[in-house]
From TrEMBL:
Any one Pfam family match given in the protein's UniProt record, by short name: Exportin-5
Protein name per the record: Exportin-5 C-terminal domain-containing protein
InterPro entries: ARM-like, Exportin-5_C, XPO1/5
Species name: Timema podura (Walking stick)
Every Exportin-5 C-terminal domain range: 1-133
Length: 156
C-alpha cells in the first residue's frame, strides 16, 4: 500500500504542503517505490479510461458485441486478489459512470452480466462474518480500535 493511500485511509492529509515541481528538495525513492507508484497509477488510469468510455461513446459502446464478457474477462478477472482499498477506484471511477450512462435497453445484456461478476455482497458478508466471530470470541473490544484494524489487515 502506498503511503498516500495509507494517509488517505487514516484521514491524514498532506500535513506539509510540498511543491511537486520543487527540484531543490530531491525525493529519496527506491526503485521499488517508483515501480509500485507507477503500477498503481497505471491501474487507476485504466479505470479512468474505461469509466469515461460510457459517457463519451454512449449507445455505440453498449451495442458492441461481446462487451459484457470482455469486461468480465479483463476488468473483473482475479478480483478476489485485489485488496479492499483498491476496489474503491473500480466502483467510483469505472462502475458508476459506466452504469449511469448505460441506456435502459442494454441493462439486461451489459449491466446485469457485469454486476453478476462483481460480487461485493459476498466479499463484504465474509468480512463482516469474520469481524463478528472475532467480536464474539472476545478478540475485538469496543475500546480497541487498533486491534480491529490489525485484525482486518491480517485477514485481507
Amino acid at each position: 500500500m502506498l503511503e498516500v493511500d495509507k494517509n488517505n485511509l487514516l484521514g491524514i492529509g498532506n500535513l506539509s504542503p510540498i511543491d511537486v515541481l520543487d527540484l531543490t528538495k530531491p525525493k529519496a525513492q527506491t526503485p521499488q517505490d517508483r515501480m509500485q507508484h507507477f503500477l498503481s497509477m497505471v491501474h487507476d488510469f485504466c479505470y479512468h479510461i474505461l469509466g469515461n468510455t460510457g459517457p463519451s461513446f454512449g449507445r455505440d459502446l453498449y451495442q458492441l458485441q461481446g462487451l459484457a464478457p470482455g469486461l468480465v474477462a479483463s476488468v473483473f478477472d482475479n478480483l478476489e486478489y485485489i485488496p479492499d482499498y483498491r476496489l474503491r477506484p473500480i466502483v467510483r471511477v469505472f462502475l458508476k459512470p459506466f452504469i449511469c450512462s448505460c441506456p435502459p435497453a442494454f441493462y439486461e445484456t451489459v449491466i446485469l452480466p457485469v454486476l453478476t461478476h462483481f460480487y461485493m455482497f459476498v466479499r463484504l458478508s465474509s468480512k463482516w462474518q469474520y469481524i463478528t466471530q472475532l467480536y464474539d470470541s472476545g478478540g475485538i473490544d469496543d475500546e480497541q480500535a487498533d486491534t480491529q484494524v490489525s485484525c482486518l489487515k491480517q485477514h485481507t
